[in-house]
Prior knowledge:
Blueprint: E1 11-14, E2 19-23, E3 26-27, E4 30-34, H1 43-46, H2 50-55, E5 60-66, H3 67-70, H4 80-91, E6 95-105, H5 114-117, E7 125-129, E8 135-141, H6 147-167, E9 173-180, H7 193-199, H8 205-213, H9 220-225, H10 227-231, H11 239-243, H12 247-272, E10 277-282, H13 314-320, E11 326-331, H14 336-342, E12 351-352, E13 354-355, H15 359-370, E14 376-377, H16 393-401, H17 403-410, E15 416-421, E16 435-439, E17 442-448, E18 458-464, E19 478-486, E20 488-494, E21 499-514, E22 519-525, E23 537-539, E24 561-570
Parallel strand pairs: 4-5, 4-14, 5-6, 6-9, 9-10, 10-11, 11-13, 12-14
Antiparallel strand pairs: 1-2, 2-3, 7-8, 15-18, 16-17, 17-20, 18-19, 19-24, 20-23, 21-22, 21-24
Amino acid sequence: xxxxxxxxxxxxxxxxxxxxxxxxxxxxxxxxxxxxxxxxxxxxxxxxxxxxxxxxxxxxxxxxxxxxxxxxxxxxxxxxxxxxxxxxxxxxxxxxxxxxxxxxxxxxxxxxxxxxxxxxxxxxxxxxxxxxxxxxxxxxxxxxxxxxxxxxxxxxxxxxxxxxxxxxxxxxxxxxxxxxxxxxxxxxxxxxxxxxxxxxxxxxxxxxxxxxxxxxxxxxxxxxxxxxxxxxxxxxxxxxxxxxxxxxxxxxxxxxxxxxxxxxxxxxxxxxxxxxxxxxxxxxxxxxxxxxxxxxxxxxxxxxxxxxxxxxxxxxxxxxxxxxxxxxxxxxxxxxxxxxxxxxxxxxxxxxxxxxxxxxxxxxxxxxxxxxxxxxxxxxxxxxxxxxxxxxxxxxxxxxxxxxxxxxxxxxxxxxxxxxxxxxxxxxxxxxxxxxxxxxxxxxxxxxxxxxxxxxxxxxxxxxxxxxxxxxxxxxxxxxxxxxxxxxxxxxxxxxxxxxxxxxxxxxxxxxxxxxxxxxxxxxxxxxxxxxxxxxxxxxxxxxxxxxxxxxxxxxxxxxxxxxxxxxxxxxxxxxxxx
Length: 579
């Protein structure tokens, strides 16, 4: 499937809500899948994977380009496998987001070339403080030297220049991740002699001035770590004297220098080919008993990569790495909704390049896209699943069909809400909360769909359609909503001060007839039992449990798309109908 050539480069466009990714002149929603770490290094291996990925209804593949693979000998580059993968993706109608595994991958330098790894005089390593005063050598290059960032920037610039040569007329590659989950593990900061000298010198004025000037807008997690600094307007001196001694200052120290290092690499690449760039983050988290989770990190810098783009360091990265378009969370063990909100800080767009690939993860993408306007989501390790059993195959099909409506809602703040309902606990209790939102003059109560038997999991998005907006003089009289998903129900209540009745005027199952424009046609009109006698707009699951009840009231899910017209009766005016 050869794609028509379009000259306009993919870019991030400002919207009233945040930013949208524009590809070939149109807003684009990434329904992605990230490959296993080194899958894209082999075009032969990937030749066996493309069709399975297409069958998952994925539109964008995330895969790595390793520095060690493309520059095995200094100054000698080989992009042949990368080129073959780009052509194969293009021929399958897929876009690519390429991940530059340069100096840092999972806080290590394991994907740097052998000529970097084996020459620690030219490319000094970070040093880690161990118990008993022992200093060990880290498996990562130090930030506090010149050769590594210089070599990485040169390699990345060469890579981006090559991308421009082979893909600028096609835009198969739509974004690039610079490095992967940077930070330092095993200690809260680099303790090499060069790093110690910088740490014991005066804290940089550009950082001090930024934190003081912008302190009201800083993320809460950063402000809480800077209490003593912000309380003392005269704090100055070394890093410890300015910010206090301890892991929090160590983390700030590393974040500042990681941001500058990676910005240098990003600037070099961006000068060659101006695709949107981003950096991802290994999250900080701890399981309840305080033990460290391999996927989730820990609660102390160094248990998770110290200096990485965790939420409380976002301000530092956003300010000191301006060549990066946005910063993204990899989410496995953390609370998804909290993380979604944290990474919209300063109105940056949300993109999730890595997350769980199971049903648990698939349910949560609805919140990212529907409530937080995510430009895309991507489960990790997608190429070792089969399309017929992948938890993302069905939701991606539905989200792809309604993407025009989703992208329109992303440009209108507060016009959509996304949610999920997990399976019930073994004891029958419900782990998921009821969602209550105000939209278009109505209060929406969203909960899992009623059944007489065991309630199933569910997920969805509700969008207020702008064509139905009520007049400013009579809000809450009528509105139209698009309901997308399975296993939930919505009740509406007018917020008009004189409303004495709210009802469903129409509930119609829809089918998309034109994905590009979002044009729909009515499949069937629902009423009576299918709306619980007009009380709820029902979006049932595929196989509702009737619990032995002799009357089949709840119908199984159909298209997973419905248009719902809501109206209210108002005292005195007694207005009814659509505006």
